């Protein structure tokens, strides 16, 4: 615990030292270097959360990134970022290429990006792991579950994007359309969850394509939008067949037959005030066992508000609402009880949050955040609470305190 | 050195684009912020919406095809005024916004400079650069862009603009200032009447004489709008 505090302090000191060195020239082209790091500490009074041993206070919440970018011509830009994190049992300090893109902007209404790019979905999908951008130490977990960060965050492929002003003073529209390959880390929440059922994935991912449309309305500061994502996901690995455990680990492959996400959102920014609201539905259908199929339907929404009360102090609050249902179909589907009652704590997570952020200077900050959580949503899909860290079972309510500090340059 | 009256006809393409927006107020308001641009920027005016989009890195070119690059100050009252006036954000918020682009691979951090003099120097030598400085900053080698804000109730495009004469006595004495005028525009586009809203009376008289020669695009109704005209000996 203490070594993490010292580590954080050293990182902050290092950050201040390197803040002034963020540009250099290569062949007369300016290369910008930027980075960030954050360190969190979490205490929960009941259930352990986010694969951390949080009921004993956990500091296993660290991430960092470093990027380099350059504008090669008026229209052409290249860049790449590496990212690494450790969150409880997730991430485990395996660095990944977060994004690496070549971006060509033909004009205001048409640009293309190729490479591995962050996926535009809702307000914050592409920036959900960039702690320095947000008031909250944890974004609403119903829509942006940090334990599932890498499931939707990026794709290797291409984007088409642009801004189109509307006539008659109707504001303007920004659009993004994308297609590519999603590649999950095997150190992510879902592969970790299913190890509890003796399923061990070696790879998971597949085709991801969709679009986002957002309208900057004529009302100053008001933006609304909608997103859609389709995916075709396959996981490969080994498992112990529960019907024949004596065979040991045998090859295992699972492919979704339907996998999509819809999102609707709005944002209002004015005079230091920011209000966000977002709704997201995620649906998947995939083979289960013995010829059955399971349909997992998650519905999530949140409303958040944040206000800068002083130049360096911002406060915020949100309510996050998450429900999950499982329905097993097929010839033997009736053998598996459906979970459709979202009032039950195992089928929902409701989270009330109050937070404050203090910017110590332009590059460093501290956040303090309280969570009052009802439900634990444990099912066939992770929701922040894992049986591995809660072998004694779950309690209905969990209160959490999160303290986070970080820097960026 | 007085600015002699002359007729200026903006390019047709610019007018077509400008027709999409509604003119109400010209150039700098509270805080006396000047928006300046490199000489390669063809336009003399920029809509408030375009200016916002340029600084939010959502727009790389203006309607006339000029490539543009925003330049910011690192801090200061002019910086805060500009951000509040045109971007509806504070300095912390805009910094966070740029970080979002930088860390998601969707943009670069714009150039930030320490002083108005640095901004003027950088804009003067950098193709397509657009920046802002305080109203009292000495301007050399750059052009001042007139910022046009949108109002939903009016739609008039300035077709002919006549620059006011700078009274020699005031110019010699180094007296600068900004004049605010309220114009009544006929349906045909002629300036029917001019009322002084604020500013030095002698400068206001000179400005009034000039704007009476301005011609706007026709409109179904008579229109009233406010314009702000800066007088600057450095220009």
Outline:
The complex is a heterodimer of chains A (409) and B (235). With 409 residues, chain A is mainly beta. Chain A is 7% helix and 57% strand.
Walk me through the structure.
The complex is a heterodimer of chains A (409) and B (235). Chain A is mainly beta and 409 residues long. Chain A has a single domain (2-408), classed as Beta Barrel (Porin), CATH 2.40.160.10. Chain A has three helices and 18 strands. Chain A has a 16-stranded antiparallel barrel with strand order 2-3-4-5-6-7-8-9-10-12-13-14-15-16-17-18. The radius of gyration of chain A is 22 Å and the shape is globular. The two termini of chain A are 26 Å apart. With 235 residues, chain B is α/β, with parallel strands linked by helices. Chain B has two domains: 1-12 and 153-235, 2-Layer Sandwich (TolA/TonB C-terminal domain), CATH 3.30.2420; 26-148, D-Maltodextrin-Binding Protein, domain 2 (3-Layer(aba) Sandwich), CATH 3.40.190.10. Chain B has a six-stranded mixed beta sheet with strand order 3-7-2-6-4-5, sandwiched between helices. Chain B has a three-stranded antiparallel beta sheet with strand order 1-8-11, with no helix packed on it. The termini of chain B are close together. Helices cover 28% and strands 27% of the residues of chain B. At the A-B interface, strand 2, strand 3, strand 4, strand 5 and strand 6 of A face helix 4 of B.
């Amino acid at each position: 615990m203490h070594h993490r505090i010292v580590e954080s302090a050293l990182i902050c000191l290092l950050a201040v030292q390197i803040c002034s060195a963020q540009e250099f020239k290569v062949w007369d082209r300016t290369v910008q270097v930027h980075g960030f790091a954050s360190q969190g500490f979490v205490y929960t009074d009941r259930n352990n959360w986010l694969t951390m041993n949080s009921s004993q206070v956990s500091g296993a919440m660290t991430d960092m990134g470093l990027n380099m970018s350059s504008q090669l011509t008026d229209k052409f830009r290249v860049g790449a970022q590496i990212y690494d994190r450790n969150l409880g049992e997730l991430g485990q300090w395996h660095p990944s290429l977060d994004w690496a893109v070549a971006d060509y902007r033909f004009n205001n209404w048409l640009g293309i990006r190729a490479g591995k790019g962050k996926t535009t979905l809702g307000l914050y999908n592409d920036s959900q792991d960039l702690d320095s951008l947000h008031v909250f130490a944890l974004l609403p977990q119903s829509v942006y579950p940090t334990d599932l960060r890498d499931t939707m965050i990026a794709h290797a492929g291409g984007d088409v994007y642009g801004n189109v002003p509307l006539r008659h003073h109707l504001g303007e529209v920004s659009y993004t359309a994308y297609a590519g390959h999603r590649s999950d880390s095997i150190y992510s929440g879902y592969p970790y969850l299913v190890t509890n059922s003796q399923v061990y994935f070696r790879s998971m991912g597949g085709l991801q394509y969709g679009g986002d449309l957002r309208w900057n309305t004529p009302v100053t500061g008001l933006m609304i939008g909608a997103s859609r994502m389709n995916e075709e996901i396959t996981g490969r690995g080994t498992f112990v067949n529960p019907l024949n455990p004596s065979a040991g680990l045998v090859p295992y492959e699972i492919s979704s037959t339907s996998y999509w996400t819809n999102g609707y959102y709005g944002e209002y920014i004015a005079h230091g005030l920011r209000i966000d609201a977002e709704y997201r539905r995620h649906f998947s259908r995939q083979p289960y066992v013995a010829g059955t199929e399971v349909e997992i339907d998650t519905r999530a929404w949140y409303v958040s508000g944040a206000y800068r009360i002083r130049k360096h102090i911002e406060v915020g609050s949100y309510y996050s609402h998450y429900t999950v249902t499982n329905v097993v179909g097929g010839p033997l589907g009736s053998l598996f009880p459906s979970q459709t009652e979202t009032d039950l704590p195992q089928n929902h997570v409701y989270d009330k949050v109050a937070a404050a952020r203090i910017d110590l200077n332009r590059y460093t900050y501290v956040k303090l955040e309280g969570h009052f959580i009802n439900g634990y949503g444990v099912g066939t899909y992770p929701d922040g609470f894992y049986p591995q860290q809660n072998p004694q079972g779950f309690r209905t309510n969990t209160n959490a305190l999160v303290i986070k500090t970080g820097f960026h340059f | 050195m007085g600015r002699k009256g002359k007729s200026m006809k903006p390019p047709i393409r610019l007018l077509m684009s400008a027709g999409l927006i509604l003119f109400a107020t010209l150039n700098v308001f509270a805080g006396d912020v000047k928006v300046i641009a490199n000489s390669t920027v063809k336009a003399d005016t920029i809509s408030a919406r375009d200016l916002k989009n340029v600084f939010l890195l959502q727009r790389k070119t203006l309607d006339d095809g000029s490539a543009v690059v925003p330049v910011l100050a690192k801090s200061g009252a002019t910086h805060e005024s500009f951000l509040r006036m045109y971007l509806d954000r504070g300095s912390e918020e805009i910094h966070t916004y740029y970080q979002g682009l930088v860390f998601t691979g969707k943009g670069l951090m714009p150039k930030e400079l320490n002083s108005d003099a640095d901004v003027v120097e950088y804009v003067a030598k950098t193709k397509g650069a657009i920046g802002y400085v305080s109203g009292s900053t000495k301007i050399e080698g750059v052009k001042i862009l007139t910022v046009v804000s949108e109002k939903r109730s009016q739609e008039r495009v300035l077709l002919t603009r006549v620059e006011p004469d700078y009274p020699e006595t005031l110019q010699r004495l180094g007296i600068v200032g900004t004049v605010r005028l309220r114009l009544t525009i006929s349906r045909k586009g002629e300036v029917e009447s001019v009322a002084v809203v604020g500013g030095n009376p002698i400068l206001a008289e000179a400005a009034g004489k000039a704007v009476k020669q301005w011609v706007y695009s026709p409109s179904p109704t008579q229109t009233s709008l406010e314009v702000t005209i800066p007088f600057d000996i450095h220009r």
